[in-house]
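Two proteins follow. First one:
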Amino acid sequence: MSSKPKLFYAQASPAARSTLLTIAALGLDVELIPVNLAAGEHLTPQFLKINPLHTVPTLQDGDLAVFDSHAINAYLVNKYGKNDSLYPKDAKKRAIVDQRLHFDSGIVFPRVGAVVGALLRGGAKTIEKDKADLITQAYQSLEILLEGHNFIAGDELTIADFSLVATVSSSNAAIVPIASNTYPRISAWLARLQALPYYETNQKGVDQFKGMVLSKLA
């Protein structure tokens, strides 16, 4: 039996892609197990035994199962990172990274998810203006948070960048486009992330996400 960590994931999922970026940045050897959400593979008894919340990504590392992508990414750096640059141990630096992670999990991702949920499960054929406006407000906050910094938590790349770029790049591609003249800092930040040698693992999922969203629009 393989002793490698296992990641159950769906490529189109922004959350799963943040973990794929973390794995790539750390150079980890992880067994990747795709989960077909449309076919309900996340609702099988076998999967529910691992993750009763039936979400992706899910990490299985020995007898440990971790569900939320933000928790997974922090765990991977804490356990396997050669250093702490992606998730600093310094209390002040970590507090900023944690705040940005919560900004993704509590604000940006749910607002993008509300649009996707309405299209995939609610039968919507258009992107509702009030939902798009909330994403625009999140962009405005992100633009402010990037002032004076190359990355979202300062001048060093962290797991907060992976979480937010996976979400924001998906929204930019399919829901609310990011105009470089309106959001120059976000645009420059996206370009920095896109220059990473392993960014393609996110772009593949962005393309799938875009196709999924556009297929539901009238």
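Second one, unrelated to the first:
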Amino acid sequence: MSTLSNPLNHSALLATATDAASYAAHMIMDHFGLAHGYEKAPGAVVTDVDVEIERRLRRRLHTATGFAVMGEETGGELGAEPTWVIDPIDGTSNFITGNPDCAVLISLVVDNRVEVAVTVIPQRGLRYTAVRGGQLVRNGVPQTGTRRCDPTVEVVGLSAINQLAFDLAQTTLRPRVTGSVGVNLAYAAQGIFSAAVSTSPHVWDNAAGALLCESAGLEVRALDGQEWTPRSGPLVAGTHEAVETVLDTMRAQHH
């Protein structure tokens, strides 16, 4: 059972999540560019490393807190109780091929709100953390006044090449495809990207990065323009101007 009091002890929960993410990051580095993938569903690749990391994270997080766990590889669901949400390797194809844009994503969802978030990009030596109501923290340093992009170079991060990428290229935004939703959202939070778009419906792809961006003072919205929640599915996060450009472009696609 959990030893954490109610209301949530955000500091203790963040420490638990950060420790778990660091453990997973070491496993990623040990197998980076060496693992063999197999298709778990059409267009979706997984490795035994993904599955093993998730298995170990589930045990560590549940043992430490008593909370339920939901993960990409072995399932679970969001309920009324606090739930850890994990993506053991976001950007598995990158991990397999030796591309450093892959990440461990851990978040805690309570009452349809993200309360704690950790994103670690091991091969780039980056760790981003946030708790609800707090600042974005990068490698242990609070990011007060997070750098925003040069207005002459407004970049939007995407995880796949699709029609939206081509349409956004006709706007003031410059699309960049990383192959990882979590990396895109972390880069938006830091100010490397002006915005990031996730077309993934899965909470494990979106939740951690959504809180990072919110903590950096960015807008986080569902693709219908409404406020994003963990049950909303896809999202766009970024500066107000960049988010509006993305949403306007998507609206034009449907006319």
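SUMMARY FIELD: The radius of gyration is 17 Å. Residues 154-254 form a domain with the D-Maltodextrin-Binding Protein; domain 2 fold (CATH 3.40.190.80).
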